[in-house]
Amino acid sequence: MVRIKGVLGALTVCIALIGYLPLQPYLDPLARWFFPASLALGLYLQMRNTVLPGRLLTPLSILVFLYFASGFTMDSMIVVTADLLVVFLGIRMLGERSGRNYLQVFALSLFCLAASSLYNLSALFLVYLLLLLLLLAVSLVVLTFHSHDPEIALARPELKKVLCVSGLMPVASLPILLFLFVLLPRTQYPLWDYVNRSAPKVTGFSETVNPGGSASQAEVKSVVLRAICSKVPDQMLYWRGIVLNGFRDNAWVRLPAPQEKSLRAEPGLSVQQEIYPEPSGNPYLLALNIPRTFTGLRHSESADTVFTVHRPLENRTKYQVQSVLSGAIQVKGGVDRDFYLALPRTVSDRLRAKGRDLARPGLGVEQKLELAEQFFRDQRLGYATAGLPVGPDPIDAFLFVTKRGNCEFFASSFATLLRLAGVPARLVGGYRGGSYNEMGGYYLVTEDMAHVWVEAYVEGRGWVSIDPSAWSTGFARREGAGRKLRMYVDALGFYWNKAVITYDLEKQISLVRSAGGRARNLRFPERIWRALVVPALALLPLAALLALYLRRPRSAEERVLKRFLRAARRRYPAAFREQSGLFELAESLGDPHVKEFAGIYGAAVYRDQRLKPDELLRLKEIIRILGQHLS
Amino acid sequence: MAAVNTGNNLLFLIVSAMLGFMAVSGVLGWLNIRGLSVSVHLPDELYAGMKTLVSVRIENRKRFLPSFLITAAVSGIPTSFILLDPRKPQTGSLLLAFEGRGMHSMQPALISSSFPVNFFVRFTVAPVSGSFPVFPAPRASAAPLQGGKPDAGQANASSAKGYEGDLAKISDYRGGESLKLIHWRLSAKHEVFKVKELTATSDDPVVLELDLIPGGTLEERLSYCTYLVNRLVKGGRPVGLKLGERIIAPASTRLHRLKLLGELAVYGKD
Q1: Based on the domain organization, do A532 and A571 belong to the same domain?
Q2: I need a labelling partner for A41 at 20 to 30 A (CA). Which of A137, A601, A629, B220 fits?
Q3: Can you give the pTM of this predicted structure?
């Protein structure tokens, strides 16, 4: 025999843990430690078969509430609420084990899980939710047994049956969950927007490029974006984000771009992408170089083909882009040469000399570019992400001393050299590469793929993309082991975001529209089918109506008799005989109301008269009384 | 604008899950109390106003789903069943008293359950078939009518039952016996209650005439008469009955006694 009390206790601990775990990383230290401590104490008390009295726990709850509430501001609202929920959950684990308290634990756990969705949108939520749903269903059933008799004990096979049947409930409710999730009305604006968290992140992509800022580059594998598109050649995978066109001291930054008219990309492969960026906190929209049109998001485009949104991307969203994979952006009417020839504060003599060499008269832009590339190749520069040059002039150290650097060194030194040579140049920041997920049909771009390359202005062609890093030795990304598994896991997360997280009013509307459209555009393959199916479909409701009409009692008298017989059958299931006449029935049931009904009804109908309105009312009243008696 | 309400969707998931769970638990609760049949096993002898032990047999006629936490109330007295497996009847017992003599029929049994979630209690009614006579409540007569003295030297222990003698045999509970006589230990092992039958002594035939039995009202006379019939037949004496012009010949069998009691139960009720 298994005591229900013990089962309920164990289930409650599991439920409380599921409430606590998803919130745990985001809690105040006090709340984070309070819960495990009180859970342990609660388990200890349970073993000793005792609990803490309410006169102790109630003041404790009030104290804790006051402590956390004192730190309440509009900004910390979520934090305070989450802390309070978890602490109350902890306190509940110490108290008396009554049905009401168990229900409180269940509700608090559910609220905790709901609160965790304000911090974390990962697919792990679904795991927690399904687990919680299962445990809640089982616990509520077990609680019902508990409230029937707290000391009840069940034999193992019996308990197994109870658990099986209660476990069936969440399984059966899954289709309803899906259905309701799609159907529940969405608002156009987020309910929780005012508590939106800002999510600053370690990012490889930045708005300044300052080679020598640190000796190593972080290799963060966190996801930047996923882009559904066809597979494109690897050497064309440049995701354009930002253009850095000027200097603050020695660092490349983005200054307001001068007015110019970028026309279009050179002819090339046109690729349509649907991009799902991770929340980044910056306003730049990424797309394959060179993006031409963005849709699906309100944005603005600057002259140097940089697309931005008005507010940083803090929510999950998506947009569509049309890109042309070509090497240059055509510009109408030339560019502001002075602006694009400005130099950093520090330029070493060696670099300056090289620049002068390239700037000598008689050389065309194309030749200058070739010579510069030749110079880079001759220097035998190596690609590295650690042991980067630092010091007062890292660019000089990179080019002439250590000869090792990452894309920032390559790009900024090359662009500086071009400017010294009199070729307008700028840096483009974004990402290079991407893992193509065959299963999901999308590119996955991670932070460690952050990249900077150069655009040089060539008269007649426009801004030509050049990636000096490509001339380095050792610039090839290796595929790590376990890539396949990572791709599967990532695909799972991707579909979660696509199907659940970004589901909104617009999708709801388009779903309804497309369903309507499909219904309208329903085509039947052959004439004969149309000849059969359409009339059949039209006749079906008619037939249903006809059937209803035929089965419907024809007069008020018949209707009231039918209702009466139904009520009487429910009231006297044993004594009721379907075939017996009304008076016979009244006699056998011995109910005065039934007798009265038989009297009124018989007096009218059996003499071929219609019921008078007041009689009809009385009969309906009797039917109502018969029905009431039952409950 | 695309995707402005991120985050909410997880709350929508929770809400959908809760709504789905509510719907499913509602259906499960409805299924739980469906397909139950109740039958009541009454003892042969029921006396008006006297508490009698009645067994309630309940069967889950569903094919697969067990029923949980079922309470079946017969005439307002509940009995509980924790788990009813499909097609495996279970029996519970309860003490019932019926008001007034005559033919009675069972009210439908009220079946209720708080399963699966203790927020609501669902009800349904299950018909309980059959009508049965309830005998008048026996009342000890003031008249000194005894079971008859045995002849001198012939203390013949009769086969009829008594209340004080030696244990003669164990038989099924029929409802008339005193609860004192129920053999609880044996009853636990059988489907029906077992009673101890104790020995008593016997005598000559007698015909009771209802109209001549002392008593203010008909009901009082019926009560006295019932008492006498029981007392005398159990004492081993053949008893007959004169009801108005009808005469029922004396006999001392149990069946005869039940016949007499049945007559008394419906007398004047036609």
Answers
A1: no
A2: A137
A3: 0.59
